[in-house]
Amino acid sequence: MNIKLLGALAALALLGACSNTEDQSSATGAGTATTTAGPRPGSQEDLVANVGDRVFFDTDRSSIRADQRATLDRQAAWLGQYPQVQVTVEGHADERGTREYNLALGQRRANAARDVLVAGGVAPARISTISYGKDRPAALGSTEEAWAQNRRAVTVVR
Amino acid sequence: MSLRTPFLITRRHALFGAGAVMVAPGIFTWPLMPRSAHAQGAVIDVTRARTDPIPIAIPDMAGASPDAQRFGRDIARVIQANLRNSGLFRPVERQAFIQSPEAAAATPRWQDWRVVGSQALTTGRVDTQGDRIRVEFRLFDVLAEQQIQGTAFTAPAAQWRRIAHLISDVIYERMLGEKGYFDTQIVYIAESGPRDRRTRRLAIMDQDGENHRFLTDGSFQALTPRFHPNARQIAFMSYFRNEPRVYLFNLDTGQQQVLGSFGGMTFSPRFSPDGRSVVLSAARGGDANIYVVDLATRRERQLTGGGSLDVSPCYSPDGQQIVFNSDRGGDQQLYVMGADGGGVRRISFGNGRYATPVWSPRGDLIAFTRISGGQFAIGVMRPDGSGERILSEGWAMESPTFAPNGRVLAFYRESQARDARGGGYSSRLAQIDIAGFNERQMVTPTDASDPSWSPLLS
């Protein structure tokens, strides 16, 4: 009896703790009755899980690589599905450059990604861009692999 | 830069004017007559090589009260540290001293200072007068047995470090024949927290790391501060409201204001030598072009264009030219143009990419960052691109800034992360003589980047 009660309280506490996240049903598991699985459609989590939020660049380059193009095409289609969604494209660089130049390079990468989205039918007014240069790495190592992950443009739902 | 040139100090007793001079708010200075008349025309003929710093004795200054003695000791130690850190002086160990500081302040016994190996001697006396102090300072040529300089300072006691720096500059200038750089500040970016969520704050300190304070609270990212020529204002880049823009920071009022009405990101600001405008980069579309913004009218004028990334502009000290880096030729290289944007020519032709050019206040050199073969380096070249010399090389370093006499560079040096979580990464300020020796790490409370050296404060 006591144990059962505790279990119910714990489940409630979990629900409370997760109320801000989009994927509470999957996080709390079988205890809840609701059925919607996966991220809320049109959310950042949806973009990450089902579309891909980022594209990668070659060293000191800002042209969209052929193997990255499909991600941006999917993003454009996804944005077409959710016309109320506005995004910021964040441009980044790896640590093997100087800060000021990398700010410019990150801006150019963000812009290159944005151009593909616009060409894919997204209204320019829905997309803003920003550069963080080398100052917000996604991978913290000092290796080729880390740098490849950091040369990126990330689409973020506002 | 007279590194290996012999310089003669054939000064008669200088500064024999009668009146006091205000060198900074509340700090007055006036000349002191030599105590005893001596034969004129003594010559110190010194050839200074980097391995041959000038031995100088800097005993504690004398004082009549315990308070005065404490100031006298603290001032002498700041002077010793300044001169030692320059790499051009070797303060003699005080344990070797024979004559007491009090006796030397009255009358130096030359033999006592010669045998400990000093070529120069400083003496001083401190008097406390309420909340002010008066500091009498004398510099002697030990070999010629002659006073080279005598100066008295009065200042609020809280300003005793300023006095020590002013005296250090006097010694440097009288012994080396070029201006010092000790009465200066450095503004920089204080960095803390993990690298993917870094807090970056504007911070300011004396050139020796003292009187440190933060200027921003870390609620927005700050980058690349640069001093106005009057040292009372800073241009920097701020991510306030997530809009990366160049701002001006007023050191007297603490006020910040955005500079210009550009639509996109503005960055890499530098003041013109006359302090009337700021040259910066502005992102328009995917390009970055150089603009100059007049501070009085706030009118902006575009200097470069054409689809490249043109960043890190810096004026020559006469304001006639601008050096910057651009990828217009395929990769990052240094270019010089007229202040109106005309006559662009490339000046860097070595191996690798070149970035962050800064013009020496003396006009004779441009310092830069070079990225080559997986290594970063700090170097200097002449403004026509000739005479390139690498001063320091390593995993990562960038953003050189000149001390106001053009003799020392500060920059920041990063260490390589050892693991995938960024362990082992650090970012620290360093200094190096432009002859490529005496590299020293500067002490800051946290990781640090983007130093900018102020002009002389007085």
Counted beta strands of chain A: 4
- How many helices of chain A? The count is 6
N-to-C CA distance of chain A: 47 Å
Q: Give the CA-based shape of chain A.
A: globular
Helix content of chain A: 40-55%
**Oligomeric form:** heterodimer
Low-confidence stretches of chain A: 1-33
Radius of gyration of chain A using CA atoms only? 20 Å
Strand content of chain B: 35-45%
Secondary-structure element string of chain A: HHHEHEHEHE
Strand order of the largest sheet of chain A: 1-4-2-3
Q: What's the average pLDDT of chain A?
A: 85
**How many E-type strands of chain B?**
34
- Spans of chain B of at least 5 consecutive residues whose pLDDT stays below 50 are 1-18, 37-49
Quick take:
Chain A is an alpha+beta fold and 158 residues long. Chain A has helices spanning 2-17, 24-28, 44-50, 69-81, 99-119, 144-150; strands at 54-56, 87-92, 127-133, 152-157.
What does this entry look like structurally?
The complex is a heterodimer of chains A (158) and B (458). Chain A has helices at residues 2-17, 24-28, 44-50, 69-81, 99-119, 144-150; strands at residues 54-56, 87-92, 127-133, 152-157. Chain A is α+β, with helices and mostly antiparallel strands and 158 residues long. The longest helix of chain A is centred in the last third of the chain and has 21 residues, at 99-119. Chain A starts with a helix and ends with a strand. Chain B is elongated, with a radius of gyration of 24 Å. In chain B, helix 1 crosses helix 4 (160-176). The longest helix of chain B is centred in the N-terminal third of the chain and has 21 residues, at 66-86. In chain B, a hairpin with a 6-residue loop joins strand 11 and strand 12. In chain B, strands 2, 3, 5, 6, 7, 8, 9 and 10 form an eight-stranded mixed beta sheet that branches. A four-stranded antiparallel beta sheet of chain B has the order 13-12-11-34, with no helix packed on it. Chain B has four helices and 34 strands. Chain B starts with 5 loop residues before the first strand and ends in a 5-residue tail after the last strand. The chains are: A alpha+beta (158), B mainly beta (458). The interface between A and B is large, with 30 and 50 residues.
